[in-house]
Specification:
Layout lengths: L1 H8 L2 H4 L9 H15 L8 H28 L55 H11 L1
Helix pairs in contact: 3-4
Length: about 140
């Protein structure tokens, strides 16, 4: 499993959301094919369906390992004393995920120096027509 994690680490388009190619499906698929070539002997000789099955199983394996690592991080609450909780078995190898996306720049629609407060009058809801005129219209119709 350590070799698998190391190989995934070499392809940031698979795991790093800050990477420009993270959202490029073609590049990501190509990276998974490269990973599968390393771990599956004779990958290139297999038919397309078998290749897809192998890639899908590798992606599922990665997702499982990554999700379990994230869950183990979430269980360790900041500010709490470290108890006897064991670290995730692959925590050291997956430590690169902790910085994944940390460098992404967020955008805000608030300006630090210029916050304009506008006082607006709430719009009054439209009043329904008086009940008497509705009744008269209905009476004329009959």
């Amino acid at each position: 499993m350590e070799l698998f994690i190391g190989e995934v680490n070499l392809h940031p388009e698979v795991w790093n959301i800050a990477d420009n190619t993270y959202h490029n499906r073609t590049k990501k698929r190509g990276a998974w094919v490269e990973i599968c070539r390393v771990f599956c002997e004779g990958f290139d000789e297999k038919d397309e369906r078998k290749k897809n099955d192998i890639c899908t199983s590798c992606i599922k394996k990665w997702r499982n390992v990554k999700d379990n690592f994230k869950k183990s991080l979430n269980k360790t609450k900041s500010g709490h004393a470290v108890g006897s909780r064991r670290k995730y078995i692959y925590a050291r190898q997956l430590s690169f995920l902790q910085t994944a996306g940390a460098a992404t720049e967020t955008q805000s629609n608030f300006y630090n120096n210029e916050i304009k407060e506008e006082v607006t009058q709430p719009e009054e809801p439209e009043q329904p027509p008086p009940l008497a005129s509705v009744l008269r219209k209905n009476a004329n119709w009959i």
